[in-house]
Sequence to fold (508 residues):
Amino acid sequence: MARAARELRIIGLQTLPEVRQGDDLASLILEAAQREETGILSGDVVVVTQKVLSKAEGRIVDLAEVAPSPFALEIATRMEKDPRLVEVVFRESRRVVRMDQRLLVMETHHGYVCANAGVDHSNIPGDDMVSLLPLDPDGSAERIRRAFQERTGAETAVIISDTFGRPWREGTTEVAIGVAGMAPVESYIGLTDTAGHLLRTTAIAVADELASAAGLVMEKVSRVPVAIVRGFPFTPGAAGARSMVRPAERDLFR
Amino acid sequence: MARAARELRIIGLQTLPEVRQGDDLASLILEAAQREETGILSGDVVVVTQKVLSKAEGRIVDLAEVAPSPFALEIATRMEKDPRLVEVVFRESRRVVRMDQRLLVMETHHGYVCANAGVDHSNIPGDDMVSLLPLDPDGSAERIRRAFQERTGAETAVIISDTFGRPWREGTTEVAIGVAGMAPVESYIGLTDTAGHLLRTTAIAVADELASAAGLVMEKVSRVPVAIVRGFPFTPGAAGARSMVRPAERDLFR
Fold:
């Protein structure tokens, strides 16, 4: 288990260029970090938004080329949505969690539960263009982590973040959909608290807390798609963000 | 709408003494911040855990003095729980959201949905002692904020945080259950993104992201119940954390 830091810094990178398909994202991040005299150091957690990763990986779809199925047409008409968008949402999903009030809450092929299966229109040039979630965000995080290691020697953790809503609460927060180099959940099971009680069930989703912390320096309307959390003593690990998906048999909110 | 900061600092206070009923929490925080040469400055967001606030406000119950109702006894037997604990959980609740797999997911009188209605055993001295959520976390946050303002002149925001689970994902994160001095949700409605698209529905739960960021320097097993987030350009506001409770008519997960 990692020790708590007295102080963390969260640094938003301001000078990343517009990312295009095929770009080497790790290099662009390293160049921006050097340009901004921050660098990427051992112990850093580098948080990268899904949107910029999806752009680099070409996970962009032109709705003009999508033919909606009869079911997508039916749902879209009833929900007053673009049937081509609904078709893409269905293709990215393995299960409908809720379909009501103009909202499609879907379970993605990775197992993540979110609105529209992560299909999103914002910050994508072109009126008919939407972005999809990366195919394998854990694998993408690991590739970026290894690139940092190979090019600078820095032992980092990398998180791919996305903006999810939550039941019962207003507003969205950033969560981790890809994790490399660190344990996404810190377990306190078996440790005792300050009163000497055994902590039996406490597990903290530190990867989600790191994504949310990074979210504080990322603005939806500006180009801050990468942030560095410096000073968090993460526990090395390779479980990936997919290990944060609660198994169906222990999920009360399927 | 607030501007994004290039850099934030998150500072965990290490020297807060053990808090007891009737203690002036604002004074203890100010003294610790001065002792640690951090201070409380204008623009700071001060995040205080529910546990330490509940102690100061005497929101502690001795289970030895609780007589469980027949229904609490029935449920406790079936779920293999302490019937006195179940009784306290029921008293703190206005609705059962899920009751399954040894979990009681409740809606509190404030409207928050969480396990055991926030009734918690950890970090409380005495085997039969449990803590309850504060009666009015927004009001408590406002009292602390005003005390900082009166004693130092600093214009701060104050967040009361608690550790909540989430559907579909493993692990807990810190969320805001009390907020004073700032807008808990930042709305981007009507603004345009980098691609020139109107952002129609984006609202970010910055108070929850701030609570999660503070959680990174707070350890369950040690005494770091207060953290300062320095450098976040919050939007002044008085809506309180209760404004983050999604109204029933727009909630797909009642």
Remarks:
- Residues 137-152 of chain B form the longest helix (16 residues).
- The mean pLDDT of chain B is 92.
- Chain B has two domains: 9-53+135-245, 60-130.
- Chain B has six helices and twelve strands.
